[in-house]
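Protein fold
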Amino acid sequence: MHNQNKAFSLIELSIVILIIGILVVGVTQSSRLVSQMKLATARQLTTSSPVASIKNLSLWLEPTLEKSFDVSEASDDSFVTNWFDINPQTSNKIVATQSNQSFKPKYYTNEINGLPALRFDGNSDWMTLGVILGLESNSKITVFVVNKFATNTKNFILAKQDNQVDGKGWSLVFWNGNFELGILGNQSTNAIKSSYILNNKSTYLVAASYNGNLSSAGMNIWINGEKINPTRTSTLNLTPSPNGSEDFRIGAREDNSLGWFHGSIGEIIIFNDSLTDSDIIEVNNYLKKKWTIK
């Protein structure tokens, strides 16, 4: 008996190709469906979060709602001109903006744990929020930021200061391996720094609070929902108090020195108050669930 090798017929090959095509389409559609479900869940968590019900909300920037960006810019690899504040406690919404194409961050749909975020290049990208009165260095503040940094270098995440003019203000910065909340006055600083071990390209939820007291008990910091015991510098006397004229920026400080933020920013929430631990835990839990932070 002789074995005969038979080639596939054209019909058989067509059937195989058709099956492969169906499988590819199925996988693609399934992936798209998962992304859509994750985005829908994030939107639901945003609109039902405790953030809106906590008093003294100054700013809330987030990337999942349709009203957060101009429609034409909410697509992969698009430069972002405006990031709109969704704060429901005021009709006078703040807008993070950048008109210079060379300084604009970019929007990506799957940037931080499957959700959209803005990517800052670490060289020149930044956005301005203008002057926000009530957020001087002698005022109470609580800041939440979800971010993923790309390099272990000096990176200003948020800054309201101008060392070229008066050196007053405050900043949330990733500085030489630590997250740091710095409260500045007259070219001096009182800061808290986390002692957390950080990893490049990992996602972090940072929460920092300042109650207006420059003693060691006046500032606290949380990393990924965990309250830690940070290191602190010595106290200082804030005299005279800042006048609020400093430009508020994302990704850099007003004089554009000491480094731009290199990485991605997903959400920024600022309260013009020192929140209680219970309120901070509530906001942290919302952000951890939304951004899948362990």
